[in-house]
Design brief:
mainly alpha; 6 helices; 68% helix; elongated
């Protein structure tokens, strides 16, 4: 074949203007052993397809693949009725424990006074709303003072720990 013609076909190939017949002509040219030295760099590109068609799977490929895919047989475990209901038993035990703890806490907080849930017999302990307001205000004030004292104490503690760290560094 003419090298000039092959070079023109290569130019068309790079421009994506070759037909299928021209591409097969290029492949057949590069399959020959005698390729000019300046065109040897293109040989691998056009021979690749032919070489890959010759590559095949080994004879034991199917058996190796099936050996990896097949899962071993797993025997089923026998489930008794107790094992089936075990999660239900556990949930019932948790509920019973929570209810018991709730009753203990309720009796601890309200040990001295009986609980009266009958709203018909309810009577207010304060006749004067101003007295009730003053008592609630004083209780909230004591709570606020306690929170402020704890914050102040926390600041003092953090400052003293910072001073200790600084003294250790010196």
């Amino acid at each position: 074949m003419d090298c000039k013609h092959i070079e023109q076909l290569l130019e068309q190939y790079w421009q994506c203007e070759t037909s299928i017949e021209e591409e097969s002509e290029l492949r057949s040219f590069f399959l020959h052993e005698e390729v000019p030295a300046h065109l040897l760099c293109y040989k691998d590109l056009f021979v690749y397809q032919q070489v890959q068609q010759e590559v095949g799977l080994s004879a034991d490929f199917d058996t190796r693949l099936l050996a990896q895919i097949e899962t071993p047989v797993v025997k089923a475990k026998r489930l008794t009725l107790t094992k089936r209901f075990m999660p239900l038993f556990k949930a019932a035990a948790v509920v019973a424990i929570m209810l018991s703890l709730g009753n203990v806490v309720q009796h601890t907080f309200f040990a001295g006074e009986p609980l009266d849930y009958n709203y018909d017999t309810y009577r207010d302990t304060y006749d004067d709303p101003e007295v009730a307001y003053k008592q609630v205000s004083s209780a909230l004030m004591m709570l606020s003072e306690g929170i402020n004292k704890s914050k102040d104490q926390q600041i003092v503690d953090s400052m003293s720990s910072i001073k200790k760290v600084e003294m250790m560094k010196e």
